[in-house]
Design a protein that fits this description.
Blueprint (H helix, E strand, L loop, with lengths): L4 E3 L5 E3 L3 E2 L5 H14 L3 E3 L7 H11 L7 E6 L8 H13 L4 E6 L9 H13 L3 E7 L3 H11 L5 E5 L7 H10 L2 E5 L13 H10 L3 H11 L3 E2 L6 H8 L8 H8 L19
Parallel strand pairs: 3-4, 4-5, 5-6, 6-7, 7-8, 8-9, 9-10
Antiparallel strand pairs: 1-2
Helix pairs in contact: 1-2, 1-9, 2-3, 4-5, 7-8
The structure holds nicotinamide-adenine-dinucleotide.
The site of nicotinamide-adenine-dinucleotide has 23 residues, from α9.
Length: 278
């Protein structure tokens, strides 16, 4: 299984499809990540707040896979933005992961009411300079947040990881990011199962036409839009299904039909709005 890579604006590359471990029980994480690595995933997306970095680290350690073949992301939690605390936070994450660097470190949320995300971004720049994170980026940043950190530091994030799925395509931030060379990572790529995405004619008809599952069609849509995805599942069968998306191509008409699933009024959002999470 060869997973395509995308280039980042800092000269590094990222596997376009990975495995996300949000809500994977810490007690089950080592098993789930080991299974993911066995079926071919090489990119793991975790976060300090998920509480399962140790399980990710244990699975990596026992896998025997050379470090250079793996891509590991973790994230700075909201209560660690101030002072030098981001340095302590990355040290704790690396200890739990059993790694001396992560491939990508993200500011998890801007928490705009606290007025400290520019500071957090400055600290991530230091963390990258120390070699503790190869690439740095942000998550849940909207255009005003991105504009502010870039204006303050002249350092453009490598990625912005945002809620993105067919009913919530975030056209404003994705257009801004494309213009600045920021890669978009889609979180909740399957809509977290919170609305009937798989039953829509656009998805169901494409699935039937290609002999693929609705989930595979939606993941394929993300990939063809150049988004990075890391669907979450703890079931071996679905782990295999979600990576088996490189043997078919959606037509332009099929892509357009899925594009049209966004009501474009923001009502398709299933998670918290970044301005409301502080
Ligand atoms: P998702 O859209 O990947 O949905 C996951 C759910 O979809 C699973 O619980 C499962 O019920 C279902 N599913 C998975 N594979 C399926 C399949 N083949 N067929 C049918 N149903 C299937 O949502 P997510 O887990 O929230 O997002 C993916 C990853 O994004 C997370 O694991 C995490 O790494 C990241 N994330 C980041 C943030 C952030 O704030 N940065 C927030 C949420 C998630």
């Amino acid at each position: 299984m060869t997973i395509p890579t995308l280039s980042l604006n800092d000269g590094h590359t990222i596997p376009q499809l990975g495995y996300g471990v949000f809500k994977v029980d810490p007690a089950d994480t080592e098993r789930a990540v080991s299974e993911a690595l066995e079926v071919g995933y090489r990119h793991i997306d975790t976060a300090a707040i998920y509480g399962n970095e140790e399980g990710v680290g244990a699975a990596i350690a026992s896998s025997g896979i050379p470090r250079g073949e793996l891509f590991v992301t973790t994230k700075l939690w909201n209560d660690r933005h101030d002072g030098d605390d981001p340095h302590a936070a990355i040290a704790e994450s690396l200890e739990k992961l059993g790694l001396d660097r992560v491939d990508l470190y993200l500011v998890h949320w801007p928490t705009p009411a606290k007025e400290n995300y520019v500071h957090a971004w400055e600290k991530l720049i230091e963390i990258r300079e120390k070699g503790l994170a190869t690439s740095i980026g942000v998550s849940n940043f909207l255009v005003p947040h991105l504009e502010r950190i870039v204006a303050a530091t002249q350092v453009v994030p490598a990625v912005d990881q945002i809620e993105l799925h067919p009913a919530y395509q975030q056209r404003e931030v994705t257009a801004w990011a494309a213009d600045k060379g920021i890669r978009i990572e889609s979180w909740g790529p399957l809509g977290q199962g919170k609305y009937d995405l798989f039953g829509t004619p656009a998805v169901a008809e494409a699935a039937a036409a290609h002999g693929k599952s609705p989930a595979q069609v939606v993941l394929r849509w993300h990939l063809q839009k150049d988004f990075i995805v890391f669907p979450k599942s703890v079931h071996a069968e679905r782990l295999r299904e979600n990576i088996d998306v490189f043997d078919f191509t959606l037509t332009d008409a099929e892509i357009a039909a899925i594009d049209a699933l966004d009501p474009q009024d923001g009502s398709g959002r299933v998670g918290t709005h970044p301005n409301e999470f502080n």
